[in-house]
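Notebook entry, cofactor series.
This is the third protein in the set we're modelling with a bound small molecule. For this one the ligand is pyridoxal-5'-phosphate. I'm keeping the input format identical across the series so the outputs can be compared line by line later. Sequence and SMILES below, as received.
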Amino acid sequence: MFSPVTISRFQNIETPFYYYDLALLNKTLQACKTAADRYGFHVHYAMKANFNPKVLTAIQSYGFGADCVSGNEVKAAIDNGFGQDKVVFAGVGKSDREINMALDADIFCFNVESIQELAVINELAKAKNKKARVAIRINPNVDAHTHHFITTGLDENKFGVNSWQLNDVVDALRKYDNLQFVGIHFHIGSQITDLEVYKSLCIRINEMQDWFEDHGFKITVLNTGGGLGVDYHNPDTNPIPDFEGYFKVFKDFLNVKPGQEVHFELGRALVAQAASLVSRVLYVKNGQKKNFLVLDAGMTELIRPMLYQAYMRIENLSREAETGSQKSEVGSQTSEGQSHISHLKSHILKYDVVGPICESTDCFQKDVELPESFRGDIFAVRTAGAYGEVMASRYNLRDAIGSVYSE
Ligand SMILES: *Cc1c(COP(=O)(O)O)cnc(C)c1O
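Returned structure with ligand:
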């Protein structure tokens, strides 16, 4: 929800841009920290969700570690104050250069995704006379009940090693002297809103750690990955994810043995609600079948709706500023308010909200119900703090998108 002061501030800024609500970001980080600390859990922030320097500085200040998926992310994490002893590094395609960089940085742990990768890390560590700490990323074949584009923990996915390969994994671990095995790692998908899924994951992790111990391997790190979802439909009434409920599932169902650490890798849940994409209407096109609103932002600034068929709430801030928000209108009991509602309702229209890019897929959402909208109206696409700014591109030679911060 944007205050009238914020909306009038937007009027004077060139669009499009990402608007960051730093107060909400801090509240979210504090809520996660409090809930994780209750059980002594370790949280690594998944850098790929958002690497805006101000966001990283805030996250780092709460003492979270970093979860990286490229050498440059490892470097950015360390440059932004995340201690190297709290950096984990996953990814199915780590290059030799990236592995060497992470070895030089003495990161906490490589989350290794194949047997061949174990061999390569061992060889590169040997050349440096080092021992690399490794956890095995296991594909637990747990269905995340999320969109198939963002599920990662099924046998058909490219990530991790599958359970039938584990005998070869332990053979490799016995053979390679420059690896120190620390534990097992999982990450089953993203935007998971059904906490039962994590219960299934815990059961699989318990089986897996027993298997390793039966084969003579001591496990100190249980890394459960990330994926906790956010409420894209109700960003104002449900701005902070249920971290308490999430961690409690692991407390209740994960069999944590003495000396073991439980690690998490949260991206979206920490940053998604803290930003909106702010844009202006360039043109209103009324067709015979469709009304289009052409915004000055498109898939080059925010690609989630086009790439993953993701729903994101779209609001006309200019009309809300004029008439009060739709929600408070509906709740209003005064007769004046009532007449206002009918006035508003008569002006609700359906629009396809599209961007300016030369691709038909460049559409944020079809048939959005909005107050009648006009050229120059300010729009917000909500819950855009995760996988938004980081996926922006210069396609069509567009300007790089900037950011604006709450005071
Ligand atoms: C992307 C990713 C995460 C974070 O996922 P979210 O859905 O943003 O929480 C965690 N771990 C790994 C290995 C990842 O690739």
